[in-house]
Design brief:
The protein has 9 helices and 8 strands. By secondary structure, it is α/β, with parallel strands linked by helices. It has a 4-stranded antiparallel sheet with strand order 3-2-6-5. A two-stranded parallel sheet has the order 1-4. A hairpin with a 2-residue loop joins strand 5 (108-110) and strand 6. The chain is globular. It starts with a helix and ends with a helix.
C-alpha cells in the first residue's frame, strides 16, 4: 500500500480496521485541527506526532512479522528519490513514512534514511504485488477522475494582474477568492498532479488485473471530515464490480 493505502492495509492486517473506520468517521474540522501539531521550524508544517500517538494507542509494538499476510508499505527517500519498500520492522513507522506528505508532514527517519510519502514514486503499487508473484492484482486508484484526460493545452498568456489591484468594472480578476489556494493548498494541488501523472505512466506499463476507481474528485486531499462520504463511495465502487471480482477469483481456484 502507498500513503493512505498503507495505513488502511496495515490496520486491516493487524485487525484494527474497525477502529480506523470509527476514528475516520468521528473526524470533524475542529478535531482534525486538534491533531495537527504545527511546527514552523521543522521540515514540514506539522510534526505528525499527535497522529503517531493515536496510531500507537492501537498498534504500539506491532511489527510486520505479527501480520496474518505479507504486507509492503511504499515510501520515497527524499535525498535520493529511491522507491523504498518497507516489509519488516515497526508497522507504525512504516505507515507514517508512507503517508508523510512532503512539506506538510515531517519526513520520517528510518534506519539512516529520510522517508516521505510513497505516492511521489509509486501511487498505485501494482509493481509491488507483481514482484511478490501474486496471481491476481486488484488496484484501488483514488485519483482516477481527479483531472481531465488531456495532458497538454495550448493557451495564451494574458497580462499579469497584481493581487492588490482591484478589478475594473467588467473585468474578471483571476486572483479571486476561489483561485487563492494558500501555501498548503498549492502544495496539495501540486502533489495531486504528480500522483495523477505518475499513476498514469506506471499503470500503463504494468496494469492490474482489475481496478477499483471510486469517483472522489470532489473531495479534497485534506478533507478527512468527509470520511462517511468517501467510505460510501468506495463501497459503491467495489459492489459495482463484485461479480467480476468473484469471477476472477474463481478462475484462479
Amino acid at each position: 500500500g502507498t500513503s493512505v493505502g498503507a495505513l488502511v492495509g496495515g490496520c486491516y492486517l493487524a485487525g484494527k480496521l474497525d477502529e480506523l473506520e470509527e476514528f475516520a468517521r468521528s473526524l470533524t474540522k475542529r478535531r482534525i485541527f486538534g491533531l495537527l501539531d504545527l511546527n514552523l521550524r521543522g521540515s514540514g508544517l506539522f510534526g505528525g506526532m499527535k497522529l503517531d500517538q493515536r496510531l500507537r494507542e492501537h498498534l504500539d509494538g506491532a511489527r510486520f512479522d505479527d501480520l496474518s499476510k505479507p504486507f509492503v508499505a511504499v515510501a520515497s527517500e527524499i535525498r535520493t528519490g529511491h522507491e523504498i519498500w518497507l516489509s519488516s520492522g515497526s508497522l507504525v513507522t512504516a505507515m507514517r513514512a508512507s503517508y508523510a506528505l512532503p512539506g506538510v508532514f515531517e519526513p520520517v527517519a528510518c534506519n539512516g534514511r529520510m522517508l516521505v510519502d510513497g505516492a511521489l514514486v509509486n501511487p498505485v503499487p501494482v509493481s509491488v504485488c507483481r514482484a511478490y508473484e501474486q496471481p491476481l492484482v486488484v488496484a484501488v486508484n483514488l485519483h482516477y477522475d481527479l483531472f481531465g484526460r488531456a495532458a497538454v493545452i495550448k493557451h495564451s498568456a494574458g497580462e499579469l494582474v497584481v493581487e492588490k489591484d482591484a478589478p475594473r468594472p467588467g473585468q474578471v480578476n483571476p486572483q479571486s477568492h476561489q483561485s487563492r489556494l494558500g501555501i498548503t493548498g498549492v502544495m496539495v494541488e501540486a502533489f495531486n498532479i504528480i500522483q495523477d501523472r505518475i499513476s498514469r505512466a506506471r499503470l500503463a506499463g504494468d496494469p492490474p488485473d482489475m481496478s477499483l476507481q471510486p469517483k472522489l474528485s470532489h473531495i479534497g486531499l485534506t478533507e478527512f471530515h468527509r470520511a462517511d462520504e468517501a467510505i460510501s463511495l468506495g463501497y459503491q465502487a467495489t459492489m459495482s464490480q463484485i461479480s467480476e471480482l468473484t469471477r476472477l477469483q474463481s478462475v484462479l481456484v
